[in-house]
Design goal:
heterodimer; A: alpha/beta; eight-stranded mixed β-sheet; B: mainly beta; Folate-binding fold; four-stranded antiparallel β-sheet; two-stranded antiparallel ribbon; 10% helix
């Protein structure tokens, strides 16, 4: 594989950029693979990459119904963080942050990791207390966290509403300085290019239509491009997980919901961090192009439509304007929606299933993008070793039955409602 | 914007309603021995179909009645609505 560097850039500039190698190939599916990964999004591509790199399993195919990176990895708000309170989440996502920090070098692809810091604003004494509890839990798990006062925040985010008339006055905030953003497409493309170079077949426009199971063991998958035998199959299809699981006679603790995001017209730099509103559900950051990248609540009803409705956007943006009043002067450039696999406790599932050789990676709710590296890393381990890694050992499918929920927000089931 | 026909008030905008999830879920009967699996199924597990979905909505900023809606989850088209005790 051609290495990307300043020298390869100069060399290719001399030939008018006509001789770059393709970043990944477009192979015909083989008859049989050791591992088939369904879903060519960030998690699927990362899983294939770590299978090849960490476990030396290279006879792997990624089957993607559309094109790689066209689902949620191309539809998120690019936020990275590990500011969780429960150990299961904190340790898992913190391993992910460590992978993010070196990902551009590892993949030889600039994923534009920007540790600009994520700030959760608090609007009452009680909320400030809750944040300091969360911050302390984070630090006990070795995750960076800092409490910020109102005066510090005035210097850091001067355009937030610090006026006396603010409906939700800013009392302070919790910051994870290493949190930030990354370029979402680059993450998918970087993983795809490296996985391809190690022998993984990335097969696009190939829809899985069924499974072949014999005596409780997976034999292969049926696809729109013919039958493919497989010793192991991993599901990485986010919002469509229930549809594939149904073909395996499985019912899951998941509902699919549409989450919208939007960007404004580009403006000069005025927001250096990722900031979340504490009195509702709204988060924003400014992209390198200057657009404000914003998101918030789900539309709130089951959906596979990849598009939402205006009342939710209006609700979300009114929270944005309460936080940064000057947002009201911006024009909206684009809005879009993605399908979230909302699990019943708000935490993911990375586990084996009742069928030998079938592995499940789903339930990412709103938070799948930041988990891309660690999801791939732990899922590759789970597939290769046929058992969960310690990091994902709590993200079991049977935790609902056993009463071992990981309800980070403490709101019980149906975390997306209300 | 969804336009939902409340069986009591007629067609109103989505803003007046809140969502109540899958209408096929039935609570295990009171006074009967319930296995962990049945309870688990009731509380957490959903069919989550793409296409026709029978669901509950609440006219929370209107007559405050709950009712049933059949809706397509892939297009958001609403086929029919009915009172809670009527077959849809």
């Amino acid at each position: 594989m051609q290495k990307y560097s300043i020298f390869s850039l100069i060399k290719n500039a001399l030939s008018n950029h006509q001789n770059w190698e393709v970043a990944w190939k477009d192979p015909e599916p083989k008859k049989e693979y050791d591992v088939v990964i369904i879903g060519g999004g960030g998690h699927g591509l990362a899983t294939a990459y770590y299978l090849a790199k960490e476990h030396k399993i290279t006879n792997v195919a990624i089957l993607e119904k559309g094109w790689i990176g066209g689902g949620n990895v191309g539809r998120n708000t690019t936020i990275l963080r590990s500011n969780y309170m429960w150990d299961a989440n904190g340790l898992f996502y913190e391993h992910g942050m460590k992978l993010w920090e070196n990902l551009s070098q590892e993949l030889n692809y600039n994923v534009m990791y920007s540790p600009r810091g994520i700030i959760n604003l608090a609007h009452s004494d009680a909320q400030l207390n809750a944040y300091s509890r969360r911050g302390n839990s984070m630090r006990l798990n070795g995750i960076d966290a800092a409490m910020l006062g109102r005066e510090e925040l005035k210097k850091m985010i001067p355009f937030a509403d610090f006026s006396k008339s603010a409906r939700f006055p800013i009392f302070g905030g919790l910051m994870q300085p290493r949190g930030g953003t990354a370029r979402h497409d680059a993450v998918a493309w970087g993983y795809a290019r490296q996985a391809d170079s190690m022998g993984v077949d990335i097969i696009q426009h190939c829809e899985v239509t069924g499974f072949e199971v014999q005596d409780g063991k997976i034999m292969g998958v049926q696809t729109s491009r013919g039958n493919i035998k497989a010793k192991k199959v991993g599901l990485c299809v986010a919002g469509s997980t229930s549809l594939l699981a149904e073909k395996l006679n499985m019912k899951l603790p998941i509902e699919s919901h549409v989450l919208q995001a939007c960007v404004s017209e580009p403006v000069k730099p005025f927001l250096d961090h990722v900031v979340t509103f504490g009195a509702g559900h709204f988060y924003c950051s400014q992209s390198d192009k200057g657009e404000m990248v914003m998101g918030g609540d789900l539309d709130g009803y089951n959906s596979y439509a990849q598009r939402g409705n205006l009342p939710t956007l209006q609700h979300v943006l009114s929270e944005g304007v309460a936080m940064f009043p000057n947002l009201s002067r911006l024009k909206m450039l684009r809005t879009w929606g993605g399908i979230m696999d909302m699990s019943m406790d708000g935490s993911p599932i990375i586990d084996k299933t009742h069928i030998a050789g079938v592995y499940l990676n789903c339930g990412w709710c709103y938070g799948g993008f930041k988990a891309t590296p660690v999801s791939g890393w732990t899922f590759a381990y789970t597939i290769a070793q046929d058992r969960p890694h310690e990091l994902n050992s709590k993200f079991k499918l049977n935790r609902f039955n056993k009463g071992r929920l990981i309800d980070e927000k403490g709101v019980g089931t149906k975390t997306w409602i209300g | 914007m969804l336009e939902i026909k409340c069986p009591y008030c007629g067609k109103r905008s989505q803003n007046e309603f809140s969502y109540g999830g899958d209408a096929n879920i039935k609570r295990p009967e009171l006074g009967k021995e319930v296995s962990d699996r049945e309870w688990d199924d009731f509380v957490y597990f959903r069919k989550n179909p793409r296409g026709m979905h029978l669901e509950l909505w609440h006219h929370v900023a209107g007559c405050r009645q709950w009712f049933k809606v059949s809706r397509d989850t892939s297009t958001h088209e609403i086929f029919k609505t009915s009172k809670i005790n009527e077959e849809l």
